[in-house]
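It would be a great kindness if you could assist me with a short task in structural biology. I am sending you one protein, given as its amino acid sequence and as whole-number tokens for its backbone shapes. I would ask you to consider whether the tokens describe a fold that such a sequence might reasonably adopt. The full record is reproduced below for your convenience.
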Amino acid sequence: MATRCNVVIQLGKTSLYLYRHWDGYPSCTGLDLVKKLVYAGEDDYSGSKFIASMMESKREETSYSPASPDYVATNGAHGDVDWVYVIKFSNSGTVRVGWASYPLLENVENQTLLAYAKNNLKSFSEFKEFVDVEVADFETRLASQMD
């Protein structure tokens, strides 16, 4: 079963919506976003290097699935997603990141995932800390299944 997600890249008043069908969890997509933001570097004020790396990202062919793009541009937020990530580039060079999933919103009423993520932007370092914890949790769960 797929864990779908949206990635919304905000550049001023422009938003680019991307959809990812597989591995939307922070331990995969979140980690991928962290790596791509680090690769783009602090001088990527326009987000162009980050966006290029997103659009070039490919899922490798497997015995059950052909090779395909990791992220597909869409004309808006895709429905039926499990996670939403918002990456906001500012002219000052700062990057803010918001993220949301329904398990995180148990006590939040009347907000969509996208609205919550847009309204709760954090620093890149806070996002990276969140992703690091998620990756460690995933690795622990995986190791316990191997025993």
Residues 5-146 form one domain. The chain has a mean pLDDT of 89. The chain is about 35% helix and 25% strand.
